[in-house]
Amino acid sequence: TINQVLEATENSQGNVIYTITPSFDGCVGTPLDIAVNVNPLPKPTLVDGVICVEKATGVAYKTYELDSGLSASKYNFQWYFNSLPISGAVSNVFDADQSGEYKVQAINNVTGCDATSEIAKVISSFPGLTVTTNQTLAFSDNARVEVVVVGGDAVYEYQLDNNSFQSSNVFDYLKPGPHSITVSDENGCTNLTHNFFVIGYP
Fold first, then answer.
1. What's the pLDDT tens digit per position in 58-87?
2. How far apart are CA 135 and CA 199, in angstroms?
3. What is the DSSP string of 72-136?
């Protein structure tokens, strides 16, 4: 029995040779070389994410896939939600449909070595519900429209017709004729459209 802790560095994987020299009452015995197989710990990693939730019902209509980054054929898994094990969650990925803290334990099928990931936070995002516009009067020199989104709590972005999205909800110097407004958000939960018409001089 060795009454010492033998440590291997993080990068020492594979066979490591420990040399043990026994001694008793000043007499030194023959050194022994002991080969020890050092297996690496699993390294599951998770990334924070967002789920899209209907505020009225609290039901997620767009989940977020948490990926351990490890192979399902080489490891066994157990997922946790707010520190409690999730029944039946034993795959290398998990679809989160609730906001909270998630982590996963990975166990190597061959070595039995196991490790638990850092906590990943999943938050809820509520989409905008309706979109309307406030316009200047007909025949204005500067036809201007302001986009108003009702409901939701995300950061919105706005698109006029097929142009690029912008952070401002105001569009100036619009040409006469039909137009379309599309509203999205940075979490991908909102997708609203609204058609309107600008009346101007020919």
1. 899 999 999 999 999 999 999 999 999 999
2. 10
3. TTTEEEEEEETTEEPTT--SSEEEE-S-EEEEEEEEETTT--EEEPPPEEEEEEPPP-EEEEEEP
pLDDT score for 36:
84
Token readout for 158 is: 């706005």
C-alpha to C-alpha distances, 17 to 13, 20, 112, 131, 154, nearest whole angstrom: 11, 10, 21, 70, 57
SS3 176: coil
Q: What whole-number distance in Å separates Cα of residue 128 and Cα of residue 22?
A: 74
Q: pLDDT at position 201, please?
A: 80
Q: Report the pLDDT averaged over residues 53-59.
A: 90
What would the two tokens of residue 50 be? Answer: 């967002």
0.90 exceeded by pTM: no
| Phi, psi (degrees; rounded to nearest 5) at 146 | -115, 130
Q: Share the mean pLDDT of the chain.
A: 92
The two three-digit tokens of residue 169, written as one number: 């909800």
b/e map 161-180, b = 16+ CB within 10 Å: eeeeeeeebebeebeeeebe
pLDDT at 2 over 90: no
Strand partners, 134: 146
